[in-house]
Design a protein that fits this description.
Elements lengths: L11 H18 L13 E6 L5 H12 L3 E6 L11 H10 L4 E6 L4 H6 L5 E7 L5 H15 L6 E5 L6 H12 L3 E5 L14 E4 L2 H4 L5 E4 L15 H8 L3 H4 L7 E3 L12 H4 L6 H20 L1 H11 L36
Parallel strand pairs: 1-2, 1-3, 3-4, 5-6, 5-8, 6-7, 8-9
Helix pairs in contact: 1-11, 2-11, 5-6, 5-11, 11-12
Bound molecules: N-carbamoyl-L-aspartate.
Length: about 350
């Protein structure tokens, strides 16, 4: 894996591999020193041209826990504000010798465009309505840990499907993992042509809520709405919101999810967001090991192996991936970062 632009780049086997790798990074997180030297010497740039709390901080921590150097590119204080083009900005960052760019942008297609201007690995952290692949992976990871797997699980995704990159990525990953997905919401917030999506569509949340294993709520993407597509917030909540009353119809073991940021009292009632079935904070926590797994796949030994066999090793075999955590041999024992499990470093 050299980059991650869309979930379409991932096969089911790729997703399974990432989940296993995330397990070993979750174990790293539980240590006193939650850090491994896997990406020491690599530089990751976080280029967020659109607001973010969770995704940005999670990528930042993930990269640091792999010992990469992290450069936070701030749009607000950059030459973008002086009218510099995206291409010039990317080529400037690229000239500094970086290894990966994690990009979020309000326009769909920006990450793929950026990948044409840089040799660095591009990771999509959300582009317009298009894709948010690491959100889908962390959601799948959360569900795999809660339900034991997604094969045959009934997942409903409710809300502003049309403007949601999360819906597009999640439908793809959830169905690849064997889930049955139902999209729920008003007709005005459904994509105009959904015929080739592997989903069922419903416009009646109450009719389906009792049968779902997972109730995934979405925010109304007001920043992407061009016209009034529903009458009032109050009416929206009464038909499409996960209200306290509606949540009583959910199975006691159902999982409630939301990618955040939540608009409490609109798509989800505050009490429901605090319900023990609600996995929102698990989703946030999953973000770190999952993004560590993605960064490691993109920048770790798999990539080194190809590069080294060409330029550095002079025909010698590349070091086994399990060596990745053993580079800090001059440190006292108690300061050493333990290696990640060898079995899970084979990618
Ligand atoms: C989502 C996003 O930005 O696409 N949030 C996130 O990354 N956690 C969903 C949203 O903004 O509603």
């Amino acid at each position: 894996m050299k980059q991650l632009i869309s979930t379409a780049d991932l096969s089911r086997a790729d997703v399974d591999d990432l989940m296993l790798l995330a397990d070993s990074f979750a174990e790293v997180q539980s240590r006193d020193v939650p850090k491994v030297p896997a990406l020491r010497g690599r530089t990751v740039v976080l280029a967020f041209f659109e607001d973010s709390t969770r995704t940005r901080t999670s990528f930042d921590l993930a990269a640091r826990r792999l010992s990469a150097d992290v450069l936070n590119f701030s749009v607000a204080s950059s030459a973008t504000k002086k009218g510099e083009s995206l291409r010039d900005t990317v080529e400037t960052i690229n000239a500094m010798g970086i290894d990966a760019i994690v990009v979020r942008h309000r326009s769909s297609g920006t990450p793929i465009q950026i990948s044409r201007w840089t040799d660095a690995a591009v990771i999509n952290a959300g582009d317009g309505w298009h894709q948010h692949p690491t959100q889908a992976l962390l959601d799948a990871y959360t569900l795999r840990n809660r339900l034991g797997g997604l094969d045959g699980a009934n997942v409903a995704i409710c809300g502003d499907i049309n403007h949601s990159r999360v819906a597009r990525s999640n439908v793809d990953v959830f169905t690849k993992m064997g889930a049955e997905v139902t999209l729920v919401g008003p007709q005005t917030l459904m994509p105009p042509d959904i015929s080739d999506w592997p989903v069922t569509v419903s416009h009646d949340l109450d009719a389906i809520i009792g049968d779902v294993d997972v109730m995934y709520m979405l925010r109304i993407q007001t920043e992407r709405l061009s016209a009034g597509l529903f009458p009032t917030v109050r009416e929206y909540r009464s038909r499409w919101g996960l209200t306290v009353q509606r949540a009583t119809a959910l199975h006691p073991n159902a999982v409630i999810m939301h990618p955040g940021p939540m608009n409490r009292g609109v798509e989800i009632d505050p009490e429901v967001a605090n319900d023990e079935r609600c996995a929102v904070l698990d989703q946030v926590a999953s973000g770190i090991p999952v993004r560590m797994a993605v960064l490691y796949q993109v920048l770790g030994p798999g990539r080194f192996t190809e590069e080294r066999s060409a330029d550095e090793t002079n025909g010698e075999a590349s070091p086994p991936p399990g060596n990745v955590g053993l580079e800090n041999e001059h440190q006292p024992d108690h300061e050493k970062e333990a290696p990640i499990k060898e079995a899970s470093c084979q990618y």
